[in-house]
């Protein structure tokens, strides 16, 4: 395996590890919220004790943050160190960002990143509208656990050698993500159309709890897989660590803009059937673009194999 391929493979694991630690705070917070509100089988808001616990945890972040090492002191398992270039001229950086902003890779991934950012407003509002306090606390915990599972699932599908062909692993992973997200949003529109008339308050003791709560969990798993897959595409289509950073910065900016608009529209307030329908539409708009992004990844794998094969060296 070449150095670039090895680092590309490790990158997905690093991304999944980062998501895990990011979600670990939600696991702790969700566990605290569930413990404090486990007996509240009614609608309403959580108690102030929940917020006090969250504030105490956030204050600890300052002390844990001071224990982090500088990038130049970090060494990977294989002995390589992190490249942390310094002193890059801002004009050079701006020119490189503009070059990537016009690239085919960015244009193909923009709809997927926009979808990922936009749809984040829906699950929390859905949970707050139709579920009791203790069910929402369970949802907060499940949100973190299912998100971590989805991240690692996507990373495992593209990294674990269940087949030798990286091209096959990329295509199968894309197909699974496409099926899960398509099914989740069709399910969401169907359920939402029912709930807008019945207006239920679902508790985990309710007979219909599984239908509504299962949607919330499946959405989290499927969207988390999208996030990891986007970074998989970035890592495969980038020519250097610097380009990976620039790709990530550009697309994170697009995602942030989508999050801002998505939450802003949801705060108007907007009927949840409209939000679910818009999210479903955005997904199906992003679907063909993400397919062609996957095709670009497969072509890049083919190019790498030709360049590293003995036949490729002889042709050169």
Report on the structure:
With 316 residues, the protein is mostly helical. The chain has a single domain (3-67, 93-310), classed as Growth Hormone, Chain: A, CATH 1.20.1250. It has helices spanning 3-37, 48-65, 90-101, 104-118, 121-130, 133-159, 166-198, 209-237, 241-266, 272-308, 310-315. Helix 4 runs antiparallel to helix 8 (209-237) and helix 4 packs antiparallel against helix 10. The longest helix is centred in the C-terminal third of the chain and has 37 residues, at 272-308. The protein is globular. The two termini are 20 Å apart. Residues 312-316 have low confidence and may be disordered.
The name of the CATH architecture is: Up-down Bundle
Q: What is the tally of beta strands?
A: 0
Count of spatially separate domains: 1
Query: What is the CATH topology descriptor?
Result: Growth Hormone, Chain: A
Radius of gyration: 22 Å
Main sheet specs: none
Strand content range: under 5%
Shape: globular
User: Regarding CATH, which class?
Assistant: Mainly Alpha
Arithmetic mean of pLDDT: 83
Distance from first to last alpha carbon: 20 Å
Oligomer: single chain
Structural class: mainly alpha
Instruction: Please trace the helix and strand order, writing H or E for each element.
Output: HHHHHHHHHHH
Tally of alpha and pi helices: 11
> Could you list the spans in which at least 5 consecutive residues all have pLDDT below 50?
312-316
Helix content: over 70%
